[in-house]
From TrEMBL:
Transmembrane regions: 12-35, 98-118, 130-149, 161-183
Calcium is among the record's keywords: no
Organism classification: Bacteria, Bacillati, Actinomycetota, Actinomycetes, Propionibacteriales
Coiled coil stretches, renumbered: none
UniProt main location, coarse: membrane
Pfam families in alphabetical order: CDP-OH_P_transf
Membrane association type: Multi-pass membrane protein
GO MF annotation terms: CDP-diacylglycerol-glycerol-3-phosphate 3-phosphatidyltransferase activity
One GO cellular component term: membrane
Protein name in the entry: CDP-alcohol phosphatidyltransferase family protein
Transferase is among the record's keywords: yes
């Protein structure tokens, strides 16, 4: 049973991983649609598909028992790259102020700085908790609405209002999740002894 579990975790070609890979391919396509082609309708549709696959890949991984280490890495990477691409695209088009485009990636930069500390304890990352998923959920709903809120119609006005409501919640939860993650790293460093070092000065895995 242990061997089967390890084999499952090492699987690469699974349906959930395929969906995560397709989401990654959509990142540069979204930027092209928004910044270059200015096809906001197609960009909106792409964001909707991305949000659907974000939920679907996790659901299929559980239902089909196709969880894998690759999938556990691909899913959050795809989420963060989409958030980065969307805030850059929307800020470029003046749908959102640039401080929003800086605030969200800044949190990830600060957390990436904690990875070397995790490696000293034999970890590369910590599990994504519900708060982080809730933040991503709010942001992935906010961005399409803000994209639709750039017009002058009544519909655009309502889209802009609801988009900013989701965005404010998403940004707050995103940073709150980051603070909790940093606290988890602090607790882990206090409770887990560091790995022994090799003769070359590196950390023994």
């Amino acid at each position: 049973m242990a061997a089967d579990a390890r084999a499952g975790e090492s699987r690469l070609l699974t349906l959930p991983n395929l969906l995560s890979g397709l989401r990654l391919l959509g990142v540069p396509l979204f930027l092209w649609l928004v910044v270059v082609a200015r096809q906001d309708g197609w960009a909106f549709a792409l964001l909707m598909v991305s949000g659907l696959t974000d939920w679907l890949d996790g659901y299929l991984a559980r239902v089909l028992d196709q969880r894998s280490r690759v999938g556990a890495l691909l899913d959050p990477i795809a989420d963060r790259l989409y958030i980065l691409a969307v805030v850059i695209g929307l800020a470029w088009r003046d749908f959102i102020p640039w401080w929003v485009a800086v605030l969200l990636p800044l949190r990830d930069v600060l957390l990436w700085g904690l990875v070397p500390l995790l490696r000293t304890r034999g970890y590369t990352s910590l599990p994504v908790h519900f708060l982080g998923k809730a933040a991503t959920f709010n942001l992935l709903y906010a961005f399409p609405l803000l994209l639709l809120g750039g017009g002058d119609s009544v519909f655009s006005t309502f889209a802009n209002i609801f988009g900013w409501a989701f965005a404010c919640w998403g940004i707050g939860l995103y940073w709150w999740a980051g603070v909790l993650y940093a606290w988890q790293v602090r607790t882990l460093l206090q409770q887990t002894p560091p790995l022994p070092r090799t003769r070359e000065g590196g950390v023994r895995g």
